[in-house]
Design brief:
This protein is mainly α and about 240 residues long. It has one domain. About 80% of the residues lie in helices and about 0% in strands.
Amino acid sequence: MLKNEIIKFFTTTKWVVYFSIIAAITIITSVFLNLGGAQTENLYVYFYKYTCNTNIYIIPIMIAIIVSDIFTDDYISGNLKFFNIYLSKISIFINKLFMIFIVTLFLIFSSGIILTIVYLIIKGEDYAILKNEIYMIVNLNLTLFVGMLPVIFIYVLISVKFDNSMIISIATFILLIAIDYFFRAYYDITPISILRDFILISTNKYVLPSDKFHILLLLIYILILFPVALKSFSKKEMIY
């Protein structure tokens, strides 16, 4: 089923639409707003600042739309009842979850490639000079993905519970940002705080006590949200 999900996504205009959106946002924010400061920073610092200023907000909003599409579209169209003939609900859930991971990584690295091209055009540096920074940038992107997992699992749970999950997921993410902004000094335990801290972890040579706390918090979120979402999906009727 994962193969079918991949084919369905990458053989339609969906991936073109999502790539175009992330490309447009990346170009507009990096060139016109210059959020990374390409003229004065090296590529990794440019990446880091851009990720902190833009990607931790833009990509989760796009993922809300994608999760809703992956989980809700087949349910509304009635396709899930056919999948359930030869696959268990657990298998369907896991395959859809892996597809979400694949699309999330696709968006993160698409933004990264575009940002690199923009940086090279603005700064005019030779690619060979930047080879030493590529590993750190890949690490930063993977860390961003891991830090985003609690948000993804919240979206999955919402998509399993509600038919109009896209609007609810986006509203939930905005609410999480607001809670993090107003209560950060008192309760640094929101998924947004985990996302911010995981980006910082990628820059540290050693794991700090605060990093250990957020790593533990991330595992707690996953260990709670994953089985709850899976159980809810297992109980869901496959006929819309």
